[in-house]
From TrEMBL:
Guanylate cyclase domain mapped to chain residues: 224-355
SMART domains per the UniProt record, alphabetical: CYCc
Keywords: ATP-binding, cAMP biosynthesis, Lyase, Magnesium, Membrane, Metal-binding, Nucleotide-binding, Transmembrane, Transmembrane helix
Gene name tied to this protein: cyaA_5
Superkingdom as given in the UniProt entry: Bacteria
Protein's cellular compartments: Membrane
Cofactor dependency: Mg(2+)
Protein name: adenylate cyclase
Species per Swiss-Prot/TrEMBL record: Leptospira kobayashii
One Pfam family here: Guanylate_cyc
EC number: 4.6.1.1
């Protein structure tokens, strides 16, 4: 029921995923005003000068509805800013002369009209907008002062009080609706901005940044860093169009994002065809080496599945080199205009060397990681492997979960015994 209602609201006023706050507000205000003015035209027959009131309300209502259609269908809301405001000001000015002048209640509408105009204004020429509104209202008071004969006043105080009171109450209702619409749309915009921030920063880091405008760097004594790189990327990429290349990388990295989320890992960044993630931060935990290895195994299975599909179609494919190292690092946010959460330290460099010295299709881990995961995974010692600028490093290939720890239906899925051991480490 709620989804159906929201779909209807988005159909009328615009979808927050595709339309800006100003666009949605313009759609809302123009449509509401259109219906109110048309309704006001139909309810003006009891007035002495109903012909004029009827024409003013109907004409302005139809103009507003036309602007709503153009804004909703043709996306022309910004170009309609001044026609929209001039229509409102002309209508209110005419009603001033035909419905009691300053003694009536129509002048109350100038206040929400200016508020709406200020919200919709995008070019920051606020002084122009103020001058226009001040000019209209000052002119109306001046004309009334010198030419009271041009104003149609109420025949008695009762009608004046009723009309002024009714308009005042109606403006309060209209302002309340406007504030509700605005706050609702601001909440939607806030959620969108929060979602975008969470796409580039971990949740706790994003909250700290919003509260303090900065993030203090944190040293972690033990985290696990995972690096991947597409083997043969350049060769395969040469045969693809830029659109195909980006689409393929986006598809792979989206899948990687989903995998790391399932294994309590944090995506750090992508650089070209390289992908970097880490476990044990920003919230520290003791299971990060296990999480990283599970993540790595699933990465490689995903890439192997993709390889089989490509081979069946006789298409070129990428394979993955993957390295994991556990150790100390410093994490923090750099930049002031475009924020980036990153990690630094010798452990990061070592993890990068584990990846570049890795074997395609395998999960290559360091001795430091091996010591923390050896009870969970079958590992094959590669011996000491020479890594650039790091000398010889003990490396291990993870072959899978240990016997008795895997689900019989899926060799990469932990069984209940694995989970019990995992929870003991987590809670220790």
């Amino acid at each position: 029921m709620k989804e159906t209602f929201l779909s209807f609201v988005y159909l009328l006023f615009g979808d927050p995923r595709h339309n800006s706050l100003e666009h949605r507000l313009f759609n809302t205000v123009s449509l509401v005003n259109a219906f109110l003015n048309i309704f006001g035209a139909l309810g003006s027959f009891y007035l002495p000068n109903f012909e004029v009131i009827f024409i003013l309300n109907l004409t302005s209502g139809l103009l507003m509805f036309g602007m709503y259609i153009l804004a909703r269908v043709k996306n022309l809301y910004y170009s309609l800013f001044w026609p929209f405001n001039i229509t409102i000001l002309t209508y209110l000015s005419a009603m001033w002369f035909y419905n009691g002048g300053s003694l009536g209640g129509n002048h109350y509408y100038f206040i929400p009209a200016l508020v709406i105009a200020m919200i919709l204004l995008r070019d920051h020429r606020v002084w122009v907008l103020y001058l226009v509104y001040i000019g209209f209202t000052a002119s109306l008071y001046t004309v009334e002062y010198y030419r009271r004969d041009l104003v149609t006043f109420y025949p008695n105080d009762t009608e004046r009080y009723l009309d002024a009171g009714g308009n005042y109450i109606f403006v309060q209702i209209l302002t309340g609706i406007l504030i509700f619409i605005l706050s609702r749309n601001l909440n939607i915009e806030r959620k969108k901005s929060d979602s975008l921030l969470l796409n580039i920063l971990p949740g706790s880091i994003a909250e700290e940044l919003k509260k303090n405008q900065s993030v203090a760097p944190v040293r972690y004594e033990s985290i696990s860093i995972l690096f991947t790189d597409m083997a043969g990327f350049t060769k395969v990429a040469e045969k693809m169009s830029p659109e195909e290349l980006l689409s393929e990388l986006d598809r792979f990295f989206r899948s990687f994002d989903s995998i790391i989320k399932n294994h309590n890992m944090e995506k750090i960044k992508t650089i070209g065809d390289a992908y970097m993630a880490a476990g044990g931060l920003p919230v520290q935990n003791k299971t990060h080496p296990i999480d990283a290895v599970l993540c790595g195994l699933e990465f490689q299975r995903y890439m192997n599945d993709e390889k089989e599909i490509k081979l069946l179609k006789n298409q070129s494919f990428w394979e993955l080199r993957l390295g994991i190292h556990s150790g100390a690092a410093v994490a923090g946010v750099i930049g002031t205009e475009k924020f980036a959460y990153d990690i630094w330290g010798d452990s990061v460099n070592t993890a990068s060397r584990l990846e570049s010295s890795g074997i395609v299709g395998e999960v290559n881990i360091s001795l430091a990681t091996y010591e923390q995961v050896k009870d969970f995974f079958e590992c094959e010692h590669r011996g000491k492997v020479t890594a650039k600028n790091k000398g010889e490093i003990d490396m291990y290939l993870v072959k899978g979960l240990k016997e008795g720890l895997a689900d019989p239906r899926d060799p990469l899925k932990p069984n209940s015994k694995f989970k019990e051991m995992y929870l003991r480490i987590q809670n220790s």
